[in-house]
Amino acid sequence: MKKISELKFFLLKLFGFYFFWLVSSHFLSYKFAFFSRIWLFFYHIFLKSAAFITISFLKFFDYDFVHSYRQFALIGSPGIIVDNPCVGFGLTFMFWSLIISYPGKKISKFFVIIIGTIILVLTNGIRMFVLVTGIKFNLDINPVEIHDLFNNIIYIIIFMIWFVWINYFNKTNEKKLD
Known about the structure:
This protein is mostly helical. It has one domain (6-169). Helix content is 70%, strand content 5%. The chain has 5 helices and 3 strands; from the N terminus they run H-H-E-E-E-H-H-H. It has helices at 6-31, 33-60, 89-101, 106-136, 143-169; strands spanning 65-67, 71-74, 80-81. The chain has a 3-stranded antiparallel sheet with strand order 1-2-3. Strand 2 and strand 3 form a beta hairpin. Helix 1 packs antiparallel against helix 3 (89-101), helix 2 packs across helix 4 (106-136) and helix 3 (89-101) runs antiparallel to helix 4 (106-136). It is globular. The protein starts with 5 loop residues before the first helix and ends in a 9-residue tail after the last helix. The mean pLDDT is 87.
């Protein structure tokens, strides 16, 4: 049996995580109540975390606003509604998958996942803040364009975190992937 190269093993693990995401999001979370509760719990945590950041920014800048579980609005504006695809769980899962799949020490992976997740949730909270304030001041914000822009920004952030981790903090991997 041929020894599988590190690059192939990395890509295989990454594909495995992606397959798990597809099966979880499109099958398990709809067919099994227990799994659905676990999956929705993760969405809830991401929503509450981004909401906390958004509300903190709104308070810091002394805006008059109202909010509920998924809705945020400045007084006198229509505001935004945050649905599950917008809470950042999918992109963060992608980030986790990338880090876990790449060779390296578990403790190093643990710390980069924690720090990276905080950065990604903070970025999502800032995005929600920009949307809420932008709608109030009629900045011609198109939610679809903001969604795409946000995803591109997150992809860049994920790549930068991964790049910094690989080159400066993942010292166990002196030889790079084949």
